[in-house]
Amino acid sequence: MNDTETAAIAAGIDDMYDAFLAADRRRFDSHLHAEVTTWETHLPGPLRTRSELDAYRDERDGSGARPTLDRLAAENKRIDVWGDAGVARYVLVAEAPGEPAQYSRVTDVLRRTGDDWLIVHHHSELVVP
């Protein structure tokens, strides 16, 4: 295991969710590969590119349905790196104002591109209590 690489991936994931809370889509997207596939419980089927993800977010945000959260954090991270490939598994905690926390199991597959680690596949499943 390469501690430097796993720390870089962990920091990137944390920054991505901090960017979401700050409504900084550009910074959030800097962690995503252009061909990222996004599979999440609440999405309308798998989104197979960032262009498809952008279209979904544009429609969601335009309708005023973008989630408002007090907290969005990746916990209990387990990260493995093999050369230029990495996998991060973690529990994503989302807390909306006045609502109980929601927990999702997440797996991100990453690829090193130059000095950056970019998510090429994101899979998130809501854990129902």
UniProtKB/TrEMBL annotation:
InterPro entries: DUF4440, NTF2-like_dom_sf. Residues 49-69 have a biased composition (Basic and acidic residues). It comes from the Bacteria. SUPFAM superfamilies: NTF2-like. Residues 44-69 are annotated as: Disordered. Residues 13-119 form the DUF4440 domain. This is DUF4440 domain-containing protein. It comes from Streptosporangium amethystogenes subsp. fukuiense. The lineage of its organism: Bacteria, Bacillati, Actinomycetota, Actinomycetes, Streptosporangiales.
